[in-house]
Design a protein that fits this description.
120 residues
């Protein structure tokens, strides 16, 4: 599975912190979403517009993301960022023949930067 190592990392971080993904943020997002929905419905009633939000949209909007959606979103973001870094190296260096070599350059550069930041 592409991204399996990344998702395993997410799981490891989640287990270290003993917190489900998004647990702290989810309630705040649901509260903000509820405020928006209630205000839209109030404005519709006040202005006699006669429209309402579809029940399935309202439920999805108010519920927020579940843990699986958060993991998928994090994986998507991680993979996009990694690809962009590889693509930049691939297109900007004449000696890089393919994305695999670019991936090695990016990963080794990041490991080296981490060592340098720790004074090693």
């Amino acid at each position: 599975m592409p991204g399996g190592v990344t998702v395993s990392y997410f799981e490891w971080v989640k287990n270290l912190s003993h917190i489900r993904f998004g647990r702290m943020q989810r309630r705040a997002e649901e509260s903000r979403s509820r405020l928006i929905v209630e205000e839209l419905e109030r404005l519709s009633a006040d202005q006699h517009l006669g429209w309402t939000l579809a029940p399935d949209f309202k439920e999805k909007f108010l519920t927020g993301s579940d843990e699986l959606a958060l993991v998928r979103s994090g994986l998507d973001d991680t993979m996009r960022t990694a690809y962009q870094a590889m693509r930049e190296v691939w297109h900007n260096r004449a000696d890089v023949e393919d994305l695999r070599v670019a991936a090695y350059i990016v990963s080794i550069s990041r490991v080296a930067a981490t060592y340098r930041s720790k004074g090693l």
